[in-house]
Amino acid sequence: MIRLTFALSVSLLLTVVSAQDHAAIVPGEEGATRAIRNGIAIPGPAPDRIRGEGPFEQLLITNVMLISGEGAPPRGPVTIVVKGDRVAAIEPSTPTLPGARIIDGTGMYALPGFIDAHTHIGNTGQGLTGAITPPEYVFKLWLAHGITTVREVGSGMGLDWTVAHRERSNAGEITAPRLVVHAMFPGGSVTSAEGAEAWVREVQRRGADGVKLRGATRAATEAIYATTRELGMGTSNHHDQTSVYSTNVLDSARMGLDSMEHWYGLPESLFTDRTIQDYPVDYNYSDEQWRFGQAGRLWQQAAEPGSPKWHAVIDELIELDFTLVPTFTIYEANRDVMRARDA
User: Fold this and answer.
1) Model confidence over 113-127: pLDDT tens digits?
2) For residues 50 and 69, what is the distance between their CA atoms, to the nearest angstrom?
3) Are the C-beta atoms of 98 and 132 separated by less than 8 Å?
4) 34/40 Cα distance (integer angstroms)
5) H helices then E strands: how many in the chain?
6) In 3D, which of 136, 200, 144 has the Cα closest to residue 165?
7) Rounded to the nearest 5°, which phi and psi values hold at 104?
8) Which candidate, 275, 283, 264, 240, places its Cα nearest to that of 324?
9) Separation CA 12–CA 26 (nearest Å)
10) What is the CB neighbour count within 10 angstroms for residue 274?
11) Is the omega angle on the peptide bond into residue 55 within 30 degrees of 0, that is, cis?
């Protein structure tokens, strides 16, 4: 009885402290604030751009082979006419434009910039073992691989920090892709519909383009989808196993979610005889090896490919114009970490 009373007292104390702690944190800054309080340094801003040319009023990329990105084979050579920051025309020959900057693309290929729909400029967890990677390195690595737009799902360095980089990128002040900024919803501390709505409205006021979820009550989830839709914001959801039993991918899609992240929550949408994954008796979600191993086995509990249930879920997601963001690259990297880290 003494042990139980002590445990309950500590639990209630932690709950009160957690609630008070959350109330003092600005919405969108939860993760960064916790990191700073734990002695983790958030990296400084990316430096101003001091190298490179442009933008130009008029730019001609001549003698280049074109890959349209729409399924057509390469063709060329062509001249790409850029005015300001927009492609104005693609010509079979080089037009005469006095004062235009000319880049000779002989032997080169031009194609649309890639969009990475699930990125993190940094993760505060890196700070537990050393300095967090500077944003300048991350931005230039993306650009070097042809990625010209990224969706930052979580704003782990803080919403203000991330929005400031988005604005500087848009202004051409830093070398970086365009940033679409999603703020991470604190599902462990904001649980009511009213609290979730207020949180969404505040992060939107402070510049967020969208909201990322990773675990939330059903009431909060519904409120987030409704409020973001009203405000014209985007939504992304990593359907964490800690709350997927109440809201799986199909549930979210019906409520208006734009995209699922990774694949969590999708096999649960394909269950035919259960609502909760059949875990081993000694399973521990906090153990990454357990989590990934059992997540892979989860598909064995879902409907068979090609079955009526399988087709019904696919057809409904297509009808809802739902987006799957499977993040295959990071899973491939995890198969050979030492090789991937040298990319």
Assistant:
1) 999 999 999 999 999
2) 31
3) no
4) 9
5) 12, 12
6) 136
7) -80, 115
8) 264
9) 23
10) 11
11) yes
For residues 239 and 260, is the Cβ–Cβ distance under 8 A?
yes
Cα gap 183→213, rounded to integer Å:
9
The C-alpha angle 148, 325, 323, rounded to 5 degrees, equals 105
Cα 195 from chain centre = 23
Token couple for 320: 């809802």
List residues bridging with 181 in a β-sheet: 152
Task: Tell me the DSSP string of 150-208.
Answer: EEEEE-TT-HHHHHHHHHHHHTTSSS--EEEEEEEP-TTT--SHHHHHHHHHHHHHTT-
Closest CA to 158 of 126, 132, 184, 138: 184
What local confidence, expressed as pLDDT, does residue 46 receive? 97
Q: What whole-number distance in Å separates Cα of residue 325 and Cα of residue 318? A: 14
Q: Which residue ranges of the chain lie beneath pLDDT 70?
A: 1-23, 334-335, 337-338, 340-343
Distance, in Å, from the CA atom of 278 to the CA atom of 298, rounded to the nearest integer, reads: 8
- The full set of domains in the chain, from first to last, is 58-110 (2.30.40.10), 113-340 (3.20.20)
User: pTM for this one?
Assistant: 0.88
Tokens of 239: 């359907």
**28, 45, 230, 231, 277 from 160: Cα distances, Å:** 8, 11, 23, 19, 38
**Both structure tokens of 279:** 């875990």
Query: Cα(267)–Cα(303) distance, rounded to whole angstroms?
Result: 8
Question: Under DSSP, is residue 118 helix (H, G, I), strand (E, B) or coil?
Answer: strand
Residue 149: which of 38, 60, 245, 234 has the closest Cα? 234
- CB neighbours (10 Å) of residue 237? 30
